[in-house]
Amino acid sequence: MAGRANMKIDFDEWYAGIAQAALAFFGGLIGALMRREVSSWQTALLAACGAGFVGFLVAKFCRATGVSEDLTYAFVGVSGWLGAARTIDYLEKLIEARLGARFPRRTTDTPSNTPALPDSAKVETLPDDKKETPQ
Prior knowledge:
With 135 residues, the chain is an all-alpha fold.
């Protein structure tokens, strides 16, 4: 219990995270309704929850990379508006370009309308025969 006495909760960070997820949630709901992608309130709610989730991921990414709070809210809102599938597609491409990782594609995937990353986001990787092996 002594460890809990020293733990300090940053409520401002919690409130900002909740506000950002809510922004993405409502952006996803409005975007799905305006694009007429939903046929019932259940699918509208599911689309909004997915958008809230990816909005949270975008907010954490922005915080980790030092993006300003104003730009973070803008990115979170746009990611919510785009929806979960399009935002995740873009985040997958960003991670693949930055880390050189390759994610397996699901058999149910269809080609997305997600734009390709600019060359500035891509990282050059060495061919397998040029990589150093640990000794």
